[in-house]
């Protein structure tokens, strides 16, 4: 199953400039997903990160991974995005191996490693041209909209 940005926008609450997922290319509910983020020079943070040597912020790589996790959770357990939201709770064991720069096509992969009740845990990676750029363990909770998760 493949999802374009229009379908992603129906699932995620994020909007420009904070939508950091351009396409979902593979989706296996309750297991894994693969998505793409095409990094362009005209993204709003590049003039300040860093002038003359633009680098995609590491925290936004993790955010891109978490957005893909949200799509995977939706595919695994369909919910009404008007009623529920997947909150990103945290990440562990994050490692950043190489910078992501304008012109890169970042391939994101998430794999569910554990699920308990409304809590989802996943291993995530980001690669460019087959080279590992980042990896992390993600934690998220599916909750009613307006209700803040407790963990």
Question: Key terms for this structure?
Answer:
17% helix; 6-stranded antiparallel sheet; single chain; 151 residues; alpha+beta; 2 helices
Question: Secondary structure elements and their pairing?
Answer:
Elements lengths: L4 H7 L11 E6 L3 E7 L19 H19 L7 E13 L8 E12 L2 E10 L2 E14 L7
Antiparallel strand pairs: 1-2, 2-4, 3-6, 4-5, 5-6
Structural description of this entry:
The chain has 151 residues and is an alpha+beta fold. The protein has 2 helices and 6 strands. The protein has a 6-stranded antiparallel sheet, with helices on one face. A hairpin with a 2-residue loop joins strand 5 and strand 6 (131-144).
- Give a count of the beta strands, DSSP E runs of length 2 or more: 6
Level of helix content? 10-25%
Beta-strand residue fraction: 35-45%
- The general outline is globular
Mean pLDDT: 95
Task: Please give the radius of gyration in angstroms.
Answer: 15 Å
Structural class: alpha+beta
End-to-end gap? 32 Å
Q: What's the total helix number?
A: 2
Question: What is the makeup of the main sheet?
Answer: 6 strands, antiparallel
Instruction: State the order of secondary-structure elements, H for helix, E for strand.
Output: HEEHEEEE
Low-confidence sequence ranges: none
Physical arrangement of strands within the biggest beta sheet: 1-2-4-5-6-3
